[in-house]
Prior knowledge:
Elements (H helix, E strand, L loop, with lengths): L6 H18 L10 H5 L11 H15 L32 E3 L10 E5 L10 H5 L5 E4 L2 E4 L9 H5 L5 E5 L1 H5 L5 E3 L5 E3 L9 H5 L5 E3 L3 H8 L5 E5 L13 H10 L4 E4 L1 H18 L7 E2 L4 H10 L13 H12 L4 E6 L3 H5 L11 E4 H10 L18 H4 L6 H13 L7 E5 L1 H12 L7 E5 L15 H13 L12 H13 L1
Parallel strand pairs: 9-10, 9-12, 11-15, 12-13, 14-15
Antiparallel strand pairs: 1-8, 2-5, 3-4, 6-7
Amino acid sequence: MRGIYSNKTEIRHKEFTEIARMAYDDSPLSRIEDLPYEIVPGEIGKYYDNIFLERAIVGERLRATMGLPIRKMSEHAPLSEGIDASAIDEKYYDPPLINIIKFACHACPEKRILITNGCQGCLEHPCIEVCPKKAIHMENGRSIIDQDKCIKCGKCVSACPYNAIIKQERPCAKACGMNAIKSDEYGRADIDYEQCVSCGMCLVSCPFSAIVDKSQIFQTVLALKSDTPIYAAIAPSFVNQFGGAVTSAQVRAALKAVGFEDMIEVAVGADLCAIQEAEDFLEEVPEKIPFMGTSCCPAWSVMAKKTFPEYANCISMALTPMVLTGRMIKKDHPDCKVVFIGPCAAKKLEASRRSVRSDVDFVLTFEELMGIFDAKSIEFSELEVEEELQTSSADGKGFAASGGVANAVKNVIKKIDPDKEVNVVSAQGLAECKKMLTLAKAGKYNGYLLEGMACPGGCVGGAGVLSDAKRAEIKLKQEMANSQLKNSSETYYVDYLKLITEEDADK
């Protein structure tokens, strides 16, 4: 679970750190064969009571960290098979991004209703009364469910005065707002990639570490060791990710210490995105389109276009903060490479799009970046720091939390047209986003600005975060309060907007 340092978190961190260290140390690629034994040492299993299984799972996860495909259980080959193709400093993510290690999957039941020992066999037995299928009866003073009749509606769960009836769901499937998690012939989780939008919520919800996304850690480190200047474009949700006492200046210093030329706040791109979306809203709503959805969350945007294709034109075509920031950096430094660092798995696929590849070269999560920091033994408190960055507005920083994007766009609209009334509604989590679009389809949100965020809490609750979302949001609000600029329209970089969007007009 996000925000909890668990065995799963520890293993993931070791995987990221060791792959980064491999790249920094110029270790032979065959070293990947040794890593499962270093990450899971000893002779006795710690997690599954089967050390061979534990090492096998870690091995496949290491392959994914190298950007390699997950193998079938029936395949026999060394871990390093195909690794040469990934050991380069220019490699895009090969689909699928999100993968299930089948032999790590616990084959959890998809959904079931269970009566626990808390059942008191009460006189009223409301569970029996509310069951539409008469699937519950009393036996030896306890309620019993006939699973063949049960339709998992959950009415008995709500009715029980003792909370003695529970509804269990497969964690990955419950977290998936696209209903993309199915079961294979062996009852193991299986991803329907036609529905999947790579939000990564299944990844963080699986307690068995059976779901893994691919990484560009190794390739990024190789790039950092090259002569090409590498710039870090860091998402506004980075606050509190590396410890509550770590400042933005220390994060910048740490990035320089591991090989980055400099750090640029993506909140600057968020300011430009807010301006662009505000202008689009004023021009198009309601004259051309009934409502407008924000653009910055790729999982939300793809979900909306997949699920409601007839309203695809209602999702803003404004460039995302990541792309805008990448273009700004490359406008000033044409020969550089850009690494976007953020909380999001879906950004990895966004950067793989042909229209974006020239703007952003690599994507890392905060979790992956921490692996790089530890591979280089970075101690934040020992770093020499420069002044705190003050380049973005409070509203630009606010993009990191649910409601922040819509608020920023609304505030820009108010600057442009003070008399304009702007109604907004926001949703977090893809299931809630679907409900919001369903209501919009029914005409409930005509004239509205809709903000969709795939992750609960917004970007601060993304799949690649290190911090608890609520704590991160508290720190974010503190940073916003200390910002010299408040409204996105006050950005120092407004002149860049025309320059970096002209590229689209030329295509």
